[in-house]
Specification:
Layout: H1 9-13, E1 18-26, H2 38-44, E2 48-55, E3 59-65, H3 79-96, E4 100-106, E5 110-117, H4 120-132, H5 142-152, E6 158-163, H6 171-180, E7 182-189, H7 191-194, E8 201-205, E9 212-216, H8 220-244, E10 247-252, H9 257-273
Helix pairs in contact: 3-4, 5-6, 6-8
């Protein structure tokens, strides 16, 4: 998928941090006057210019939510399985582009940190942790994950924050992180978190608080209340992310994530051209 589907997309969107100095050479007719190195020119008595090349290498950080709510899914896969696949696609895309890739797994605590490095062997380690790490915490603390990110990654990085974003208010911390890094929020949602099905009396278990209770889903009023609350939560989540100024990719467990990623890449390309 990385080779055939996303070839060129990732590369064209994430172009590196800018221009890197390569060497000084003698001025030639047609060179930009603004590129003249006046210090070298003064020492040698001949005009020299600075030559720059595009700095391609990036640092890419994956922030993966491993809280209890990620172990839910009704559309053929759990949200945690979808998140693992997203992380794998992004990790392989990064290493194909010769970028460094790092990982932070979090719940209500920092579960795992892998410092960013390059190479296939390192990427396979990242993916292994994404697939097989057993979280100790059940809750969600996105604010803690962002604070930890800013503490361990000092230079600007492209950061994919992958979560269902069911947590406390983290807008201010996300704003701070977005000023230092290029933050991208990837929201992961299951269809039965949007709409409660008519499935009789269900025994439900809150994966984060461990509370258990019964719900009569044949009651249309209960379904309406659930659906209205769900819509309100998603609207609040979208508003919070917009206020923080981060790009958002909305992923659903019942839809191919390739479409959402392509829309994100196209949006980034249009913005870069403007």
């Amino acid at each position: 998928m990385v080779t055939d589907v996303f070839a060129g997309q990732y590369h064209s969107v994430f172009k590196g941090r800018g221009m890197e100095f390569e060497e000084v050479r003698q001025y030639q007719p047609g060179d930009e006057i603004r590129s003249i190195d006046w210090n070298v020119t003064a020492r040698t008595g001949h005009p020299y210019i600075k030559k720059f090349v595009e700095e391609r290498q990036l640092t890419v950080m994956l922030l993966m939510d491993a809280s209890g709510s990620s172990y839910f899914g009704t559309a053929g896969q759990l949200k945690s399985e979808l998140v693992a696949e997203l992380c794998s696609v992004l990790a392989f895309s990064a290493t194909k582009n010769n970028d460094r890739i790092g990982l932070i797994i979090f719940s209500d605590r920092i579960e795992k940190f892998i410092p960013p490095r390059k190479g296939l062997r390192h990427v396979l380690r990242v993916i292994r942790e994404v697939l097989y790490h057993t979280p100790q915490g059940k809750g969600t603390d996105i604010e803690l994950a962002l604070e930890y990110l800013n503490g361990v990654i000092r230079k600007k990085a492209v950061c994919f924050l992958i979560s269902d974003f069911y947590g406390c208010d983290f807008k201010q911390r996300l704003k701070i992180a977005n000023k230092r890094h290029d933050m991208v929020a990837m929201t992961v949602t299951d269809p039965h978190e949007i709409e409660l099905p008519n499935a009789g009396i269900l025994k439900l278990h809150d994966a984060e608080t461990r509370e258990e209770f019964y719900v009569d889903t044949t009651n249309s009023d209960i379904r309406k209340i659930f659906n209205a609350n769900s819509k309100k939560l998603r609207q609040e989540r979208s508003y919070l992310l917009r206020q923080a100024g981060v790009d958002t990719i909305d992923i659903r467990t019942d839809e191919p994530y390739t479409k959402a990623l392509f829309r994100f890449f196209k949006k980034r390309e249009r913005r870069a051209r403007i």
